[in-house]
Design a protein that fits this description.
Chain B: This is ABC transporter permease. Chain B: It is found in: Cell membrane. Chain B: It comes from Ferrimonas pelagia. Chain B: Keywords: Cell membrane, Membrane, Transmembrane, Transmembrane helix. The structure holds two protein chains of two kinds. Chain A is an alpha/beta fold. Chain A has one domain: Rossmann fold (3-Layer(aba) Sandwich), CATH 3.40.50.300. Chain A has seven helices and ten strands. Chain A has a ten-stranded mixed beta sheet with strand order 5-4-1-2-10-9-3-8-7-6, with helices on both faces. In chain A, helix 3 runs parallel beside helix 6, helix 5 crosses helix 6 and helix 6 packs parallel to helix 7. By secondary structure, chain B is an alpha+beta fold. In chain B, helix 9 runs antiparallel to helix 11 and helix 11 packs antiparallel against helix 12. The chains are: A alpha/beta, B alpha+beta. At the A-B interface, helix 1, helix 2 and helix 3 of A face helix 1, helix 10 and helix 11 of B.
Chain lengths: 235, 416
């Protein structure tokens, strides 16, 4: 385990963000994630999951409140610094279409290292690490040099996890990573995601509307929608 | 970043190569238009060389040059052969070429002259006329054809042709059909109006007009009795003068311009050419503008393709954003792609133009006497290539800026 378990990877306190062109706000009174901890954000579509993701990843800036990644407050950073911190400290898995179609599987997995020197420094042998992650995600090594367009959706999602994990970032953000998978593939995928995050000591923030995923996480938050906006509450 | 860009471009090979083709063709077209423009100017200036003065009846510089050298338009008046003989004996005059114009053959002008034409007439870089076939006229009814005349009308040595009275178009109603000429020589191509001329002796001009008055034939002349007539020319249209030394130029010119027996004009061909070219300047500018618009169309094509591809690339941008790429990375990625396309397109266009030139060079030389040569870009072509690069880079700012805005608006959200 690379990350110190007592370290707080993500701290959100009293955060509020007002959507442009309206009065509706997204508020997060309290949300913390320690190293190796796993949390799930549950909410219907349109409740503000993507916005929260963009806030945590530093693409959007909150209007008020505290948002810190690895103890570093994002709101005091320039946009370029936030981009750099995202590259160094975060692995992101999307719902689908995670991979660049013009890169091979291996090149896709290595992609974050191009933008993140700190993650690059943690990897001794990138090729070996790619192979290790691929095997850890229960994928065949022969896929390494294949074009990603030849992969099934399930395989693509696993490659995306391998890519998020390379260089062991502090936090893995996964946005509906299983929505394109069938239930059996979903369960195996979640087990692998959880175990690999734990092995690396990376915190995992899972965004999904699927209650079945709750069994692999330590804590659960609900995006509660009201007239005035969305509030993120623990449950 | 660079390898990412190249791989991304390879993934969009069809649209990228189409864009490249459009730019390359527009650049090649520009180079072609430029070549035609400069070659036209060049061949224009190459029409006559080595001649120090063009002398004709008193008229404007350009008019004199047009009818005597370019064989266009009509002379204002004739000059007496005695005046010509006297002036050609002047001090400082090395040689003269008499020119008697006024007849034609199927639209091509007939030039009455003497052997000095083949001896002294020069064009281009002091090149003399050479005969591709046969020899200069010797007998009274011999004719030497310019390259284009022989080529277009399909004449060979020994063919018989009839000259028409008047310099008019291809249909003349008064033919000198009683006195046919036989082709004794065909000149090599020069790329000058010489190619479009038929050359006969001054005596022949005199002979075919025996019995003509006021532009019509009033009485026939028996060919057998032609020897009995005095065929010494009485008038000329113009003559070209070569001097022994350039220092005498102004003296001789003044002497001719102040000639007492009849009013004459002596013109420096170089000056008259320059004067004429300023008249054609507008046409030259129009060509340059057309060429510039061709390139603008090419770059607009590139802009269209890049902008059209932006929407389908939003997903790609979101992935790069998630990897930590900032909006400026996305901006750079798009912008350098445009710059690279402009660069590759320009280079390809240049190569395309050069290949075409190499392929067409033998044809151009044979048909038009144009010397097309390959070489590194110079002058306006080099400037244009730099300008395309700058314009392409500037145009690339538009999709780059749009992608930058998308990136800020979309964040990590994958909009489709």
């Amino acid at each position: 385990m690379i990350h110190n378990p007592s370290q707080t990877q993500l701290t959100i306190a009293g955060l509020s963000y007002r959507w442009p062109g309206g009065e509706r706000t997204l508020t997060v009174p309290q949300l913390t994630l320690r190293a190796g901890e796993r949390a799930m954000l549950r909410g219907a579509s349109g409740s503000g999951k993507s916005t929260l993701l963009n806030l945590i990843s530093g693409v959007l800036s909150p209007d008020a409140g505290e948002l810190a990644l690895l103890g570093q407050p994002l709101q005091q950073m320039s946009a370029a610094k936030r981009d750099q911190l995202r590259a160094d400290a975060m692995g992101i898995v999307f719902q689908q279409f995670n991979l660049l179609p013009y890169l091979s599987v291996e090149q896709n997995i290595l992609l974050p290292l191009k933008f993140a020197p700190k993650r690059r420094a943690r990897v001794n042998d990138p090729k070996q690490e790619t192979a290790r992650l691929l095997q850890a995600m229960e994928l065949d090594l022969s896929l390494l040099n294949r074009s990603v367009t030849e992969l099934s959706v399930g395989q693509q999602q696993r490659v995306a996890v391998a890519r998020a994990l390379i260089g062991t970032p502090a936090l893995i953000l996964a946005d509906e990573p299983t929505s394109a998978l069938d239930p059996i593939a979903r369960d195996r995928f979640m087990a692998l995601l959880a175990s690999q995050c734990q092995a690396a000591g990376s915190a995992l923030l899972l965004v999904s509307h699927d209650p079945d995923l709750a069994k692999v996480v330590d804590s659960e938050y609900l995006l509660h929608v009201s007239d005035t906006g969305t509030e993120v509450r623990p449950c | 970043m660079l390898s990412l860009m190249l791989r991304s471009m390879r993934n969009r090979l069809t649209s990228v190569s189409l864009t490249l083709t459009v730019i390359a063709i527009s650049v090649a077209l520009f180079i072609g238009v430029e070549l035609v423009r400069t070659q036209a100017k060049q061949s224009f200036a190459n029409t006559i060389s080595g001649t120090d003065l063009v002398v004709g009846a008193r008229s404007g510089n350009i008019n004199l040059l047009l009818y005597s050298v370019f064989r266009l338009g009509n002379p204002t008046n004739n000059i007496g052969y005695d005046t010509y003989e006297r002036l050609s004996q002047s001090r400082g005059v090395a040689w003269t070429i008499p020119l008697a114009l006024g007849d034609s053959h199927r639209g091509y002008r007939v030039v009455g002259t003497n052997q000095d034409y083949f001896r002294h007439y020069q064009y281009g870089r002091q090149q003399s006329l050479t005969l591709a076939q046969g020899q200069p006229f010797n007998d009274l009814f011999d004719v030497v054809l310019g390259a284009e005349v022989a080529n277009k009308l399909g004449y060979r040595l020994g063919d018989h042709i009839v000259l028409s009275h008047g310099a008019g178009g291809s249909t003349s109603f008064s033919e000198h059909d009683d006195m046919p000429f036989s082709v004794t020589g065909i000149l090599a191509p020069t790329g000058t109006p010489v190619d479009r001329s038929l050359h006969v002796s001054l005596e022949a001009i005199e002979a075919i007009h025996l019995g003509w008055q006021g532009g019509t034939r009033t009485q026939g002349v028996d060919l057998a009795q032609i020897d009995q007539f005095d065929l010494t020319p009485k008038t000329l249209t113009a003559f070209l003068v070569g001097l022994e030394s350039k220092f005498q130029l102004l003296n001789v010119q003044r002497a001719i311009n102040t000639n007492k027996s009849e009013p004459l004009s002596a013109v420096l061909p170089g000056m008259a050419l320059a004067e004429l070219w300023t008249l054609l300047d507008q046409a030259e500018k129009a060509l340059a503008i057309v060429a510039a618009f061709v390139v603008a169309v090419g770059l607009t094509g590139m802009l269209t393709t890049l902008l059209a591809s932006l929407n389908e690339r939003r997903r790609e941008m979101a992935i790069l954003r998630a990897m930590g790429a900032g909006p400026r990375h996305v901006f750079l990625l798009l912008w350098s792609e445009a710059a690279l396309l402009a660069l590759l397109g320009t280079v390809l266009g240049y190569l395309l133009a050069q290949l075409t030139i190499v392929a067409l060079a033998p044809l151009a030389l044979a048909q038009y006497g144009l010397v097309l040569s390959m070489g590194l870009p110079t002058g306006s072509v080099a400037w244009m290539m730099v300008a395309v690069q700058i314009a392409g880079s500037l145009a690339g700012l538009v999709p780059a800026w749009r992608a930058y805005r998308h990136t800020l608006a979309d964040g990590l959200t994958q909009r489709l």
